[in-house]
Design a protein that fits this description.
With 264 residues, the chain is an alpha+beta fold. The longest helix has 19 residues, at 207-225. It has 2 domains: 5-152, Jelly Rolls (Sandwich); 159-261, Arc Repressor Mutant, subunit A, CATH 1.10.10.60. Helices cover 38% and strands 21% of the residues.
């Protein structure tokens, strides 16, 4: 008999693929420190919902961020690893490949209050429910609603190319690093033009736009943890709080305060 959800402390301890039901859910309690689930994949598609805090999910060539009241969709068979921020509350929904009309690619989805409550309710139920049960009927409604959920662009294209990986690892370790493209090219023994073309070809973005998107991902994660706007602006190396707010608003259409207020 598999672990029940009430005893699971990590999604790695729960094998969703042994269940034939259209969808099963799992909720994890808060963690006191950042925690990581190593690279793995499922037969079922997986939706990772952030109830509180933020979740980042790495798939081939991209890093997806899940701020509160959003979820990342990972199609069946896609290798992925996840990291949750301190004190995050996370819910996992596992969906049979043929059970719902979901995207065939990874994406971040905005979750309505109805879908959120349906997922949380399902997480309290035993996964081996009958196809004739009330839970099964609820799952039908959930998957219909989920298929219509809007998709948002909250991801960072990443690359396994050693030069780009070195830059991204450095910037994640120290987001305030303002090394220019020319300086990176000198460090990596290549020309500025070649490095610019490499970043563009591998990520689809210019170096400046790519670094700004990396800053946005880190900002969303830190703000979701409860860090102040002022602290996050300083952490990312902005000269002023206003400059950071301008970047954030340009990217997401709202100031940090407005954005997080709209998630409740």
């Amino acid at each position: 008999m598999p672990n029940t959800k009430k005893t699971v402390s990590s999604p790695e301890d729960f094998d969703s693929d042994i269940f034939e039901q259209a969808a099963v859910a799992l909720q994890l309690a808060s963690v006191t420190n950042d925690s990581e689930v190593h690279k793995h994949h499922h037969r079922k598609g997986q939706l990772i919902l952030s109830v509180h805090g933020a979740v980042s999910c790495e798939v081939p060539n991209a890093l997806w961020l899940v701020p509160p009241q959003h979820a990342v969709w990972i199609p069946s068979g896609t290798p992925h690893s996840c990291r949750v921020t301190q004190n995050a509350r996370t819910c996992f929904l596992f969906v049979e490949p043929s059970a719902a009309s979901m995207p065939e690619y990874c994406c971040t989805i905005a979750i309505t209050p109805l879908v959120r409550e349906l997922i949380l309710y399902l997480a309290e139920q035993e996964p081996s429910y009958s196809s004739e049960s009330k839970t099964a009927r609820l799952v039908t409604v959930l998957l219909e609603q989920l298929s219509d959920a809007p998709i948002e662009e909250l991801h960072l294209p990443i690359s396994e190319h050693p030069k780009i990986r070195h830059i991204s690892d450095t910037l994640f370790a120290d987001p305030s690093d303002r090394t220019t493209l020319r300086q990176w090219a000198e460090q990596l023994a290549t020309s500025e033009r070649t490095l610019a073309r490499l970043v563009k070809n591998d990520t689809g973005l210019s170096f400046g736009r790519w670094r700004q998107q990396l800053h946005l991902m880190i900002a969303l994660s830190k703000l979701a943890e409860g860090e102040s706007v002022q602290n996050v602006a300083g952490m990312l190396g902005y000269d002023s709080v206003n400059a950071f707010i301008t970047m954030f608003k340009k990217s997401l259409g709202k100031s940090p305060t407005q954005y997080f207020s709209s998630l409740h």
